[in-house]
């Protein structure tokens, strides 16, 4: 299967929507798009993985690289994922502690909750 990407602006974030498989063969396409988005001035990025069927270690590496690049620029990266198979990969690799994982784009772009008091 191939990987197709689209981008849109939503609530002050650039949302990169991925569809297909992110693996050793297609990860470079995602890497290039994320670099373009970041170098284009977007520092608040969300990658929507809800239509991704498969994600391997190469794809995880691309996401980690984008997170590092954004953090160095004072930005942030959120991931949208509701696929239990993919979520398991994030848990096994402990990357669920590194990435902000959300079920929807709206949740990923919502302002942080303010503590009461």
TrEMBL record:
Residues 3-112 form the STAS domain. InterPro entries: Anti-sigma_ant, STAS_dom, STAS_dom_sf. Signal peptide: none annotated. GO terms for molecular function: anti-sigma factor antagonist activity. Pfam families: STAS. It comes from the Bacteria. Belongs to the anti-sigma-factor antagonist family. This is Anti-sigma factor antagonist.
């Amino acid at each position: 299967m191939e990987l197709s990407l689209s981008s849109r602006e939503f609530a002050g974030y650039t949302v990169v929507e991925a569809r297909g498989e992110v693996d050793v063969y297609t990860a470079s396409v995602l890497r290039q798009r994320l670099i373009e988005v970041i170098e284009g001035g977007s520092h608040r990025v969300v990658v929507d993985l809800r239509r991704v069927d498969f994600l391997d270690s190469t794809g995880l590496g691309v996401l980690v690289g984008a997170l590092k690049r954004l953090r160095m620029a004072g930005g942030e990266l959120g991931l949208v994922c509701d696929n239990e198979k993919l979520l398991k990969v994030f848990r096994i690799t402990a990357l669920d502690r590194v990435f902000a994982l959300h079920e929807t784009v709206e949740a990923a772009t919502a302002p942080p909750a303010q503590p009461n008091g």
